[in-house]
Amino acid sequence: MTQKMSGARATVEALEREKVEYIFGMPGGASLPLYDALWDSKIKHVLVRHEQLAAHMADAYGRVSRKAGVCSATSGPGATNLITGIATAYADSSPVVAITGQVPKAMTGRNAFQETDIVGIATPVTKYALQPLSPAEVPFAVKEAFYLATTGRPGPVLLDLPKDVQQDEAEMTFPDVVNVRSYRPNVPVDPADVERAAQMIVRAERPLLWGGGGVRIADAAQPFAALAELLMAPVITTLQGKGDFPEDHPLSLGPIGMHGRAEANKLVSECDLLVAVGVRFSDRSTGNFGEFAPNAKIIHVDADPTEFNKNKAVDLSILGDANQVMGMLFDSVARQLGKSKDPNSNPWLKRVNEVREEMKGIPAYKDSYADLSGPKVVKRLREILPPEAILTTGVGRHQMWCEIHYRVLRPRTWITSTGLGTMGFGLPAAVGARFAAPNVPVVNFDGDGSFVMTEQALATAVEWNLPVVTVILNDRSLGMVEQWQRLIYDRHFIGIKFPKTPDFVKLAEAYGAHARSVGSLDEFAAAMREGLKVEGPTVIEVPVSPEEDVFPFMPPGKGLKDTVYGTSKEMAVF
Question: Is 485 a catalytic residue?
Fold first, then answer.
């Protein structure tokens, strides 16, 4: 059955059929027909103050809700402002549908007002970018955008709508399903590969499981954990994979990489088998590719075949959904083992515990800093927040302290930018997460440099009365860059000090948020507990020293064996 309507009305109708609840965006001339069609829609529009925030909000909404987050912008600068957020979602495989307005087709290529080739600009950082050229194509384009964004390896899709396509009318047909030529997201798992992997696992004496963002995306945490417990095998994660496996579990070693846990970095070099699930073998995780896991055979499970052998050659690749693969792998291993391994007679676990004890003495794990230090604040935050609380972060030194010291206990409760490392991600991500999970505490853990990039998101949080708590570690510096300049560039500090920073309490209050600055760890704890109870957003400023570095630290270009555990002075004491 067809219906005659405008392209804009068809876009909204198609979004409603996808059960879209929120659109994060900002209108402009080229998107006004779409916004007019939203006037009587049940879809709620969330107004942002900069289009980058809209993309970050949609990204976090998608990560938490398991649905595609939707953002919108007008043509030209509105569309290009989305790009950083779209690229962030692409790097972290987040399902996002970005809808942009465009100049009328007749004006294309004429340097029209606010004209840019956003399809061309966005193509390298999207799963797909498309532009319907007639209103009748719109329902298919919207259905296709959501299908591509949410299936296989998720990612952002851009839908660019010329203004005349939005305004003109046509007879519309709304498809229930779409087929995209040569796109096959659901590839059957090869049972022979699973059997080969099971045989490798059973023969291994020092197996290690490695979980990445793909475990969360595929909802594979349960079978992933079941295999670890069956084998009594320790578990490491990527930074994106925090929460794949409860970090308070006895088998958890935490994340590996540039600022990974010391015991994780050490033991990955000693394993004889590494089962890598939903990981990219990123340089930030592996360091020098040739030196990574030198003694191990590697099994790589992933839904994206382009990731196989891209950075690190592996012994066996298994293509498929991680949930399905891990379930099949568990059954096969259980059948061959017959029973779980006895932890009391497991030399590998004894070695793991030896390394754990050894690493307890490193300076990075000792509370030897001032009362208000990054590690202490992170640890106290974990004590206060319930297991289901969602933590978002900006990017910088504060993020790395969370990587090391914040134990994530459940999947989809850790939202951070890893692949692109986008400063300013934390606050708009917290807003998007709160829309997706309105009954769960949401906290943004930020640095002063990261926070000021997107502090406008406070306006949206205040307008919607969202109880989001933002913690700002204020060192009046770009702390992560300062650490590199201190340790690698002979303290040649340039471009990292903030001689003038906002009064964050007054800034937050100017937006209408609750705010306070704290001077001790106990004051911080009290402010956090209060902030979790009040209606509306809260900002807590925590002054910290710019001289406090994040350790462990794997210098760039080095391998995990080169991990530094503290300054030379501290290590002399150790």
Answer: no
Are residues 68 and 146 in contact, defined by beta-carbon separation less than 8 angstroms? Answer: yes
Residue among 5, 13, 26, 51 flagged as catalytic? 51
**Catalytic: which of 127, 163, 242, 376?**
163
Domain that holds residue 280: 191-359
Mark 419-428 as b/e (b = at least 16 C-beta within 10 Å). Answer: bbbbbbbbbb
Query: Which CATH number does the domain housing residue 248 bear?
Result: 3.40.50.1220
Active site residue 51: yes
Catalytic residue of the set 105, 114, 222, 485: 114
Known catalytic residue at 163: yes
Close Cβ partners of 435 (under 8 Å, ≥ 6 residues apart): 21, 22, 46, 57, 61, 464, 466
Q: What is the pTM of this model?
A: 0.95
- For range 405-416, the mean pLDDT: 97
Question: Do 237 and 217 reside in the same domain of the chain?
Answer: yes
The question of whether 114 is a catalytic residue gets the answer: yes
Please write the tens of the pLDDT for every residue from 161-171.
999 999 999 99
Is 26 among the catalytic positions? no
Within a domain: 153: yes
**Among residues 45, 120, 53, 52, which one has the least CA distance to residue 82?**
52
